[in-house]
Amino acid sequence: MSNSPHVLAAEFPPGLESFEFGSLIPGLSGGMWETAVTKVTLLVWLSVAILIVLFLTAYRKPQVVPTKGQWMAESVYSLVRDNIARDIIGPQGVRFAPYLTTLFVFILMNNLWGIVPFAQISPNSHIAFPIVLAVSTYLLYIAVGVQRKGVGRYIKDSIWVPGAPLWVQPILVPIELFQVILLRPATLAIRLFANMFAGHMILLVFTLGGVALWESASIGLKLTAFGSWGMAIVMTLFELFILILQAYVFTLLTATYLQSSVSEEH
Prior knowledge:
The chain is an all-alpha fold. The chain is 70% helix and 0% strand. The protein has a domain at 5-20 and 98-262. It has helices at 5-11, 39-58, 68-89, 97-112, 128-149, 151-159, 169-214, 219-262.
């Protein structure tokens, strides 16, 4: 059997191996070193570097009449501050705007790699990265609630359902506890991961499907390869919308959780 990538693509559909990458540094193999410097981790480092450079450049010499770079940076910050932090959390949400903005642009930058040629995969399609983001949000959410209300009151407000009959509370309290401890951070991570994972698989199916059709002996099938590649382009545009939306949704849900920590009501 030929080891040609095109032949393999024609014979085997894309699977989990499409998300596995070896070390970029020759000689590093085995244990943690094999996965320490991969294509995915490199993309994360590039995301951090790009964002640091962009924002430092934009605010290096702030002006009353902003430059294009300063205007873009201020627009992103204003979007998160006014449409997410203030609208969801309230006036005190402004103090969370830097974290929410950082979260939004970092997720967005990592998502964009999924449609960038030669990169063509989002680090968030690996569950580890969304988990880290969700845990960071979860720890902040808990810390803010404890700081504002104290440990005892925060636990009570989180798991006790006001207005419910006393005899129902033994049923509701475990449900609320499960939601606070596990469900919220898990769904936050899984939503982002699942969308980026599915998007990558869809693009692979249409792209490699076109390759498989082109490698066939039939002229008719060769012609349908262009239809498959055309769908890959259409789905790339759709994926652009989804990756922006997921960055926004993750940030929006984070603000919602923070709002529940700072609010007086349950």
